Amino acid sequence: MNAVYHRDYQVREPIEVRITPEDLVVLSFPGPDRSIRMMDFQTGKAVSRRYRNRRIGEFLKELDLTEGRSTGVPKILRAMERNGSPPPEFESDEDRTYFLVRLPVHERAELGAGYMPPAVTPEVTPEVTPEVRLAQTLVGEMARQQLQEALGLKDDEHFRTAYLRPALAAGLIEMTIPDKPRSSKQRYRLTDLGRRVQAELLARRAGTKETDPE
């Protein structure tokens, strides 16, 4: 979404997304505005004084795909750290003619489809983050308001920002009507990963009860 939002549409080079066994790379043109220092991307403090494509940004915000608050890079940093992955790499040249973002693969990715993120591996205690709490709560297909009430949350924006969007981004849940994000009939359900996470946490909870001396 950042690449779509911030690229220069007068440059006739397409956005490139390359996926290899080593990394995921997104390349767009041109680079970030000169008001942003490259070192600020690594610390999550990259805030532009000038924005490209404000109307595209408003459209993406309307679809709940962006927030328009310079939160994209900090969100990438948090997601990579939470997953136990190496930090992302941000690259441009002196003339800011391109912008390249590289997301290195997790060191355990060679384990293939059976790999579970650190939060739910047998070797560690699961980290019950907000998105994992949401996955624990979801049963069948549920509307946003049902999920929010089940979690005991009253603030709509907090629920979307801290729970719903991260769960969607992590692949724990999915929309039942993905082509109409704002549909009044929209519901959410667990993905295969979400079901595995839910089952793992339920199994751990059951195991804890079995070993409880009481």
Q: How far is the first residue's CA from the last residue's CA? A: 51 Å
The major beta sheet can be summarized as:
4 strands, antiparallel
Structural class: alpha+beta
- Strand-residue proportion: 5-15%
Radius of gyration: 19 Å
By DSSP, the count of extended strands is 6
Summary tags:
single chain; 214 residues; alpha+beta; Heat Shock Protein 90; Arc Repressor Mutant, subunit A; 2 domains; two-stranded antiparallel ribbon; 37% helix; disordered C terminus
Q: SSE layout and pairings?
A:
Blueprint: H1 2-6, E1 16-19, E2 23-28, H2 38-43, H3 54-62, H4 72-82, E3 89-91, E4 99-104, H5 130-137, H6 144-150, H7 156-169, E5 173-175, E6 188-190, H8 192-211
Antiparallel strand pairs: 1-2, 2-4, 3-4, 5-6
Helix pairs in contact: 5-7
